[in-house]
């Protein structure tokens, strides 16, 4: 037995499901979620290998080793997976064949069935509804006529979304009336393998606020949820996550129960985020993502265990960490490429000095080389005793990125 294999077995429990520090974790995907995962895993003594498109992606730059190639390239998949004791991923749009090929070499979490659900909004919504999870009314859409029919049955306005490959509001349109259905280019959206519709129409939810819950689950069915996060979006992109959420204790408990139910229903191993709409008296699930989530970045500073460490613990079969807050209040503010573009228009760079001169503000940058409007380049977080003060400090720090250099 090689050292690598020996490290799979926990001497205390004798369980083969426990992957101990020193072992190698494979991460499929090279974005910022993979990067922060790799940093947390390295801190715990794991080696992280990243499989991604190119060696300058955010996660590749902090990994112990990288295998670069198209995610569908079977010789690259094999070269990567052979070196790993356990494999996970940082985004759900990885081809199912890649995950199946990885799992021939090492346990791979979450498994292909969870990904299939998360890759297609139609499958996702029908799966959640079947599990008794509250979701907004929805209808399949193929073309202009079926969009109009969906609006008539759900009530206008509706939100139509492509079922596959949408993120950060991409592929979504709000339609206020039948006339507006003519404005959408319906052709060309991809459908699922089993004849699922290319689009889904949803009833517009008049929410008070948006929230999310992250849940972790292990192979031996232990489950732990994080406190509820409150999320503010700008142009359909997450802008700020606040903790604690301004949501009643009853709804918070319900939100954590919903997340647990989703994880159990899917047989999840790993981490999953449930995005929720909070209306005055009920919670409605918007979507789920079986991986670390932007709204969970605040846990790095705010909670006893970060979402990234919890992901490591969950897939390695370790005890799940304490998710409680270690401070009374915390917040996270995204830094989008718009800031870089605005700085460039003034022939300068973001003013990092002024930003970091704001008391208690932590800077996280993902090492992305090209800034574009709407692209997530990094985030700021801060903790304190008062949420309004924490949030104000973060906004000041972000504004200062575009202040003149003194
Ligand atoms: P993405 O995959 O781009 O995150 P979401 O479905 O989460 O897509 O939509 C992004 C944002 O758009 C949501 O966080 C919410 O602010 C808004 N939104 C989406 N669907 C609805 C809906 N049915 N009713 C009201 N707002 C919605
Ligand atoms: Mg979303």
From TrEMBL:
- Give the Gene3D superfamilies listed for this entry: 3.40.50.20, ATP-grasp fold, A domain (3.30.1490.20), ATP-grasp fold, B domain (3.30.470.20)
A single Gene Ontology biological process assigned to it is:
'de novo' IMP biosynthetic process
Keywords associated with the record: ATP-binding, Ligase, Lyase, Nucleotide-binding, Purine biosynthesis
**EC number(s) on record?**
6.3.4.18
Question: What sort of enzyme, by top EC class, is this?
Answer: ligase
Sequence ranges assigned to domain ATP-grasp in this UniProt record: 125-316
Q: Which GO terms describe its molecular function?
A: 5-(carboxyamino)imidazole ribonucleotide synthase activity; ATP binding; metal ion binding; phosphoribosylaminoimidazole carboxylase activity
Q: Which Pfam families match?
A: ATP-grasp (PF02222), PurK_C (PF17769), RS_preATP-grasp-like (PF22660)
Sites where the protein binds ATP: 121, 161, 166-172, 202-205, 210, 233, 286-287
The record lists the catalysed reaction(s) as:
5-amino-1-(5-phospho-beta-D-ribosyl)imidazole + hydrogencarbonate + ATP = 5-carboxyamino-1-(5-phospho-D-ribosyl)imidazole + ADP + phosphate + 2 H(+)
State the GO CC annotations: cytosol
Pathway note: Purine metabolism; IMP biosynthesis via de novo pathway; 5-amino-1-(5-phospho-D-ribosyl)imidazole-4-carboxylate from 5-amino-1-(5-phospho-D-ribosyl)imidazole (N5-CAIR route): step 1/2
| Stored NCBIfam families | PRK06019.1-1, PRK06019.1-2, PRK06019.1-5, purK
Function (record text): Catalyzes the ATP-dependent conversion of 5-aminoimidazole ribonucleotide (AIR) and HCO(3)- to N5-carboxyaminoimidazole ribonucleotide (N5-CAIR). Catalyzes the ATP-dependent conversion of 5-aminoimidazole ribonucleotide (AIR) and HCO(3)(-) to N5-carboxyaminoimidazole ribonucleotide (N5-CAIR).
State how it assembles: Homodimer.
The similarity comment for this entry is: Belongs to the PurK/PurT family.
Q: What is this protein called?
A: N5-carboxyaminoimidazole ribonucleotide synthase
Organism equals Rhodopirellula islandica
Gene that encodes the chain: purK
